[in-house]
Please model this.
Amino acid sequence: MAREVAIIWWVMCGFSALVLVVISALWIHAMRRPHRTYSPAQAKRWHGFWIIGGGIVLPTASVVLLLIFGIPAGQHMLVLPVEGQQPLRIEITGHQWWWEVRYPDSGVVTANQLHLPAGQPVDLTVTSADVIHSFWVPRLGGKIDMVPGHHNQIRLQADEPGKHRGQCAEFCGTQHSRMVLYVEAHAPNDFARWIEARQERQIAPPPEPAGSLFVERCGICHSVAGISQGQRAPDLSDLGSRPTLGSGVLVNDSGAILRWLQEHQRLKPGTGMPSTDDVAPAELETIARWLEGLAP
Amino acid sequence: MSAPDTTRQPATDPEQLRDDFNAVWGNPRGWRALTIVNHTTIGLRFMVTGAVFFLIGGLLAMLIRTQLALPEQDIIAPDLYNQLFTMHGTVMMFLFAVPMMEGLAVYLIPKMIGARDLVFPRLSALGYYCYLFGGIILCSSMLWDIAPKAGWFMYTPLSSAAHTPGMNSDFWLLGITFVEISAVSAGVELVVSILRTRAPGMALNKMPIYAWYILVMAMMIVVGFPPLILGSILLELERAAGLPFFDVARGGDPVLWQHLFWLFGHPEVYIIFLPAAGIVSTLLPVFCQRPLVGYRWVVLGILTTGFISFGLWVHHMFTVGIPHLAQAFFSAASMLVAIPTGVQVFAWLATLWLGRPVYHVPMLWLVGFLIIFVCGGLTGVMLALVPFDWQVHDTHFVVAHMHYVLVGGMFFPLLAGLYHWLPHFSGRMPSERLGKWGFWLVFIGFNLTFLIMHWTGLMGMPRRIYTYETGLGWDMPNLVSSVGSFIMAAGIATVLLDIVLHFRFGQPAPENPWNADTLEWATCLPPSAYNFVSLPAVKGRHPLWDDPDLPRSIAAGEHSLAVIDHGRRETWGTDPLTGKPREIIHLPGNSWWPLIASLFIGVVCISLLVKVYPLAAVASIAAIIVLLRWSWENGAHPLAAPDAKVQPGDPPLHSRTQDGPGLWGMAVTLLANGALYLALLFGWFYLWTVSPNWQVPETQVFSPWLLLASALLLSLAYAWQRRALLRLRRGDDQGLAGHLWLTAALGLGHVALLLACLLGSELAPRSSAHDAVVTVMLVYSLLHGALACVLSALQALRVGYGYVSARSPYEPLVVEQWWGYSLCVLWVSFVALVLFPPTFGGG
Amino acid sequence: MRHLRSPYNPIHIPLGFIIWSLWFVALYGGLSVACEVAAPPAEAAQWTWLNALLLAGTLAIVVLLAALTHGFWRASQRARQRPKERFVAWTAAGVNAIAALACVFIALPILSMPPCL
Model:
């Protein structure tokens, strides 16, 4: 899909560059060439030549061609019915400023990362929990807005396994810039394993007193499978396996979770997560270490 | 009606004539300068104010580019950055581009069409003050760090109270609505002036091409701005009073805002571009010393652009999830609009080809315009292609495209025009050297900034982000853009310096310095407040090329309306097609009313902002009283037209006819009003079909019978008045006052019934979008009915004073249109609210 | 002012575009409403009653606009010696012709796309 658009782009770009150069050159030539006197009949011929030929025929032919070649290119992103096996469905919900990703067929929930099988079409249903966001993975294709109350659909296909970057494209408030989605396309078997690892997991809570602290303080907004059910903030069940924290703010290497827990308001000003300054450092460390371990 | 005497009259002493005219038309100094209504002064004020806002907007852009110059910078905090880009867009669009173009048109149009002033001079003054105060209110928000920050497009729900608490969005909604009063009033005035006050003999096919551009632009403003005004009112009602038009949970839909916004927003681009293209079409023939090639084709192109551009709005919304076939319609229409522009580009090329081009600084800006604008137009056609748009929508590619179109299509021609008309503003010629430096710095800086920005966007950089990570390939192009933007800023500073210096050091301009063809160069330089001592008859499209002696003969009073001892400000009222004089329009003079009225409107705006509603109510009433008081000294009032005598052979004063400019002004105003109402109606049907949680109450929440009774009573009032006015048209004013009183009384009954319907209803406008829209529609009719009553009652009073009679039947005919409009609206509302729902699954 | 029905009344200049606007609103509005109320199945691709209806409506409007173009063109030919009248009729004919072409061009996608996806 993205490749088709790229081809369209290069054709249009070449053609436009040609038109621009020719028109500018004609214009400058017309200004510089020695003046000639024209009889009214000659002048009339020139009028016709420029206005009908240049002004009407040229642009009309161009846009007709463009429409004929351009419209079919968009058909692939339509969610048309397909024969045989139905495409994988994924539901993505935009939040200020993070992505909620659900796989309804398997019940897997994650956040700020989108994993999908390569080489087959995937149907995404997108919506928003607050303001309008826009789902966009430049390498995979066009964008689609996430509008509260609406459920827009788009069909994407990653041809090869690989990692991509997605970013919210519709201005959505203070941290619009920090709403990045990590996208990874897997070979179908790897994808099946990825899903399987997240299904039916038993997660042990962190040791007390951090355990109850987590449920009381974090669990109100965050959910972790079997431990807490918060809905306002990203699901943390596989946090340790995610490549970034805070929707692309911080690389999730060793110690990053603790840093996020301590400094998130400085790293991502305006984020909805309240300050943790009143939590004892030891408890924070315990929680951070536990979260790092949530990596199926 | 007798033909006027436009032949040459015996010359009087030009000096004496000038003094006599100055006594009537002259501009006062000191504080009283605030009362000036003259179009030359108002136009200049518009332009100077616009230039100041341009510099403010430019400064904001510099801050944006500073922040984005390098990755991961934190010079500017995210929320501040969001304020910056929101205000940059808002200031440039609403406070610079449109008012600047309107200001230039206000300045030029009467001079070009051979009139002494615009047709509603006091309205021009009101428009200017609304613009000034609205702009100041809006910009003042930046001083307290509470500027709007939801983007210049104010998409809900981000701009709604839940997600942007505080006054930020209110500043935008109220300030911009205030400014739009100015835009629409200037639009109405320009339309009527162009259609009705052209020089004798200036038929439609002999109008200067610039007047065609402005006519279409003004019509587009009249029809295009109301949807946004409505949207702003609805969103402000949602924010301040909780009426949920755009809230999904309560049956609204945020996408409705986008429709209303872009219904305005796309025509807006052409509202800015058309007058600029008009400058190009005016200047090129002058610098080629030959008429514009393909006048008729260009006119056709302007009209096509004006209409088709209303069918493009959805191309800003290709990603919101509208059915693809519908997108394809808009895609095709968007490509189509390239054709009329192509016609103009080639008409200009042909003019150059066949002409004898001479080089001056304005020409340089015209060449710059062509290159940049054609580039922007070509990327525009690309964006019209839906799959490509999905890819680059909301990226820096669009930022680049839009700046190519707007800076290329508006700023460059504006500068060309500015240099061209400088002798008009100052009486001095522009310099050559500094002007060229300025041009090249701007041209190079602009292309450096924005050409590479296409690439930045294709690399995936979204718009409106305050920073970006390194390593995405965005670092270098952003740095180049920032460097370029500073070069461009230096260029603009150079141009500014050049213009300021020229006022001091420029060579005094000779008469008609560029040997131009249009009448604005027949005034003295700089022009007097009345433009022309005598108004010449026009025989061709190029009056000054046809008769180079015009400036002298005009000043010598050898043409028509050269008499001033009656103390009236006069200009011709002519036939829209042929330009044959039909009446003498007497124009109102300087006045405090526009300033006072706009001050009260400003108080309304501020008190709504700080949520002191009682004050807002008081100030609204005060503003209405001031406006009505202002209207009192009109028509046949002794202060407006001391006596009705005219020169033998001249047609009568417009206030003594049945068809004056006010009639046309009211018609065009109602067109704007109708556009607003249609947008509301669109909202009703839109929500009904599309809104995800739309809820229709089980039973009718208001009494349809009361609404029906109210509509019937209004019909009766209208019919009664119409009968009386038909008699008046035939010259019979027997019992006119009584009929008008009765009309007002019947109208009052209609208002009372409507009020009963509204108050007795079970409408819950805060809990459902359905009820909110119904409430707004009923209140809309209520306000119209109430105003109609007041106007007719005032007319009845005026009959008593003798201002309205069979001899001066003009005013009630103007008021009658308002009644007719109110009547249509109420019946349409009745159909939409009462008859439509059952056919569409409603209660 | 001339009589309203005279082809030389300048009020007719924008006539073609006003018809075009109404057609455009009907096209977009009709499509949107039809898709909400009775969307044809996606499998039918472009071969649906809705596409046929939109196409038929467009055709009717195009015929009307073509007839108007013809009428105004003839009027402009009759007024060869009267430049003001000729200008009005010529421009009105041009506007109608452009409106007709615009209808055809904008309606092209109906031939190739499913209506409600």
About this structure: Chain C has one domain: 14-111.
